[in-house]
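We both want to read discrete structure tokens more fluently, so let's practise on a single case. Once you have written the record down, we can walk along the chain together.
***
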Amino acid sequence: MSSSVIFPAQPEQILKGLGKLWTALGEEEKQHGKPTVLRACAMTLIVATDENDSGFSASQTISELMREHPSRGIVLAVSEQAERSLEARILAQCWKPFGKAQQICCEQIEVIARPESWPNVGPTLIGLTAADLPVIFWCRHHAALKPSATDAQRAGLEAIANIATKIIIDSSELDTKAAFELMAGWRARGRVVADLEWTRLTGWREPLAHIFDNVARDNSFSKFHTIEITHAGDRPGSSAVYLAGWLSRPYRTEVKFNQGHAYEQGIERVRLRSDTETIEFERSGRDCMTLHSTAGRERKYTYQDENLAALMTEELSILGPDSVFNAAFNRAQELIREVK
């Protein structure tokens, strides 16, 4: 991995720097006497962050994602500690697949901006996206996502959202109602939106779906009249309303939210009731989940909090609209309005 710093961070200068970077890698190939570098790019992945580490954790996550989803990665870090208004560093992330001599390399651009420069980053990023490929915007700029965001912070957020084919946020770090209003606004303008808190529900959704995928099952899903979600915290968070929305949408099933006490955040238990059967899926330990039915079936599952790289790897496999998420989101919005 080699890198160089570019100031001022203008698109033409950054692209020129990328050209020099690939020229340098090409010279290494000549020294080996055969092709040793394969340039890979399937999308532009932009990560905006205002975390205190000046984009370090975001850069680490992008480098992990590139093996499954090769991209031109752009990390935009907004920091009061930035020495200049806008500067960039370019580097190549390279790795060798097991048993291969040839390296696979992706471009990574790290842009550091002072807060006052945040509203003006849009034109810079437009010039840096890979031509004719999807542009994914993962927003970790928490201040810009909150209702208390300043006009300048909102302007910077929208400038990047306007060039994105998909926007990804993590509503677990935001107020549930405010996060849904923000996403609903984007969706109303025709943008593709995703939420990592929905992605975290895969471990809950898959076992429940498998129960009713059995065509020989007598008690079909349509016969369950009540869904009970037990959640941590005073009010149901995004994960609880997403799961309730997904389960209740097909038949407009009654939903009840209950406050639990066992875990710090998220869902503790989901219970499905019919006249003849009750199915319960719960966290029975820090790393264990139990699915059981009054019909006599029980199964254990491992519970684990997926890291951001794993969640993003799953989410980046769907670049267009996700019909299942969209349906659950619409129903979840209704449930949020109903919660007292």
